[in-house]
Amino acid sequence: MSKIIYGTGDFKWNAQVDGQDILILNGRATAFGGAHDPQDDGSTASGVNTKVHPFILGVALPMRGYGLKSLKGSPIPKMPFGVKSNGQDKPEGAHVIIEDVNSGKTTPAVPVIDLGPSGYTGNVVDMSVTLAQMFDPRASATNFDRKVNVRILGGAKYV
Fold it and tell me: Which residues pair with 4 in a beta bridge?
C-alpha cells in the first residue's frame, strides 16, 4: 500500500507515494502565462520568465515550504525547480508527467517552473499555455480546464 500525503486547510485533495514518485489522481489543471493572462507578468518562482520564453513547457505546483501562505497545507513537499532562470532544463530538479484523465493523452516529462495554484482554487497544477495547448490547441490562461493525473518524477524522496 502506498503512503498517502494529506492536504490540509484549503487543500482538499491528497497525493500518494507511488514507488519513487508522487502521484495525484483526478485533479483539476488550469493554465497560466502567455500573452492573454491578465494576472501574469511572466515572472516565475524559478526565475525563468514566460514572456521571455513564451514556448516553455512547464508547470506550477503548490509546493509547501517556500514561505507562501497560499500554499500552506499543500500535500506537495518542497522540491528544487526543474529549470534554470535562462530557460535551460535542470535535470536534478522536479519534473512531472501529466495525463488527461478523459483522453489518456500524456505529456513528456516537463519541469516545475513556478509555485501555485493557491489552495482556494481547488486546482492541483497549472500548466504553461504551451503545455496546455498539447491537450487543446486553443488553450489560454483564461479558457483551459482539465481533469488530470500528475506524476512527480522522483518526488518521493522529498516526503
Answer: 16
Say whether the peptide bond before residue 117 is cis (omega within 30 degrees of 0). yes
| pLDDT tens digits along 56-106 | 899 999 999 999 999 999 999 999 999 998 889 999 999 999 999 999 999
- In single-letter form, the type of residue at position 11 comes to F
CA atoms within a 13 Å half-sphere pointing along the CA-CB vector of 85:
3
Alpha-carbon span 130 to 48, nearest angstrom:
15
pTM flag (> 0.90): yes
**How many residues belong to the chain?**
159
Partnered with residue 68 across adjacent β-strands are none
149 touches 25 (CB < 8 A): yes
CATH 2.40.40.10 describes domain 4-158: yes
d(CA 156, CA 17): 6
Sequence ranges of the domains in the chain? 4-158
Using DSSP's 3-state secondary structure scheme, residue 141 falls into coil
pLDDT of residue 109: 98
When pLDDT is cut at 50, 70 and 90, the band that residue 35 belongs to is: low
3-class SS at 70?
helix
